[in-house]
């Protein structure tokens, strides 16, 4: 059984310039805070595109699974990512 503590998350952020950023983390809220405030721990991409907002996340049982899904999401077009986010909001 996977608990939230054991979970890895794939997440999508909307940056201030309206671009989308995809990443993985064990603690999405902490990671979001790092993206918005921490110049060392936040991703280089998001540093100049603050503030960022969390649009989407999904949970996986291992880092490996989350990394594979992150790769799939990063290969999606912007339109496909927005559809994914929209479908999650509908359910």
Question: What does this protein structure show overall?
Answer:
The protein contains 4 helices and 3 strands; from the N terminus they run E-E-H-H-E-H-H. Helix content is 43%, strand content 23%. The protein has helices at 28-37, 44-47, 63-74, 78-90; strands at residues 8-14, 20-25, 53-60. The protein is globular, with a radius of gyration of 13 Å. Strands 2-1-3 form a 3-stranded antiparallel sheet, sandwiched between helices. The chain is an alpha+beta fold and 91 residues long.
Give the helices and strands, then pairings.
Layout: E1 8-14, E2 20-25, H1 28-37, H2 44-47, E3 53-60, H3 63-74, H4 78-90
Antiparallel strand pairs: 1-2, 1-3
The proportion of residues forming helix, as a percent range, comes to 40-55%
Mean pLDDT: 93
Proportion of β residues? 15-25%
Number of helices: 4
Stated plainly, the CATH topology is called: GIY-YIG endonuclease
CATH class: Alpha Beta
Question: What low-confidence regions span 5 or more consecutive residues with pLDDT below 50?
Answer: none
First and last CA, distance: 24 Å
Report the count of strand segments: 3
Specify the overall morphology. Answer: globular
Q: Give the C-alpha Rg.
A: 13 Å
The CATH architecture can be named as 3-Layer(aba) Sandwich
For the biggest β-sheet, the strand order reads 2-1-3
| Helix and strand composition category | alpha+beta
- Largest sheet, if any? 3 strands, antiparallel
CATH superfamily: GIY-YIG endonuclease
**Element order, helices and strands?**
EEHHEHH
Number of domains: 1
């Amino acid at each position: 059984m996977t608990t939230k503590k054991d979970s890895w998350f794939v997440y999508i952020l909307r940056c201030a310039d309206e671009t989308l950023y995809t990443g993985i983390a064990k603690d999405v809220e902490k990671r979001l805070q790092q993206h918005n405030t921490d110049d060392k721990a936040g991703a280089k991409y998001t540093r100049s595109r603050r503030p960022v907002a969390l649009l989407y996340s999904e949970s996986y049982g291992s880092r490996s699974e989350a990394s594979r899904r992150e790769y799939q999401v990063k290969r999606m077009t912007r339109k496909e990512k927005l559809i994914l986010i929209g479908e999650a909001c509908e359910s």
